[in-house]
Amino acid sequence: MSYSIHSTLQDLLSDERAKAVLERHMPGASSHPDLPMAMHMTLQQISYYPEAVEAGLSQEKLQAIDADLKALG
To answer: Which of 2, 52, 60, 64 is 20 to 30 A from 70 (CA-CA)?
Structure first.
């Protein structure tokens, strides 16, 4: 399966390689207390929330995550 910022968190977190990408860019993302509410959302969708921006999910970081996810093949 190929991954990108358009993949759901559920899909990303179910693959250890994709999960590692998220953790590398956003340490603690896989154990965030609000995670259950966002499992069916994509990173792109999440990035529009002010809380995500405050947590450091900038458009630049989002693009870096996307590149790393796509490199997984």
So the answer is: 52
Residue type at 61? K
Residue 42 sits at φ, ψ, to 5 deg, of -90, 165
Q: In this structure, are residues 13 and 22 in contact, taking their beta carbons and an 8 Å threshold?
A: yes
- pLDDT tens across 16-52, in order? 999 999 999 999 888 888 889 999 999 999 999 998 8
pTM attached to this predicted model: 0.90
Q: CA angle, corner 6, sides to 71 and 47, nearest 5?
A: 110
Question: Can you name the residues that pair with 42 across neighbouring β-strands?
Answer: 8
* Tokens encoding 44: 């792109």
- In whole angstroms, give the CA distance from residue 22 to residue 20: 5
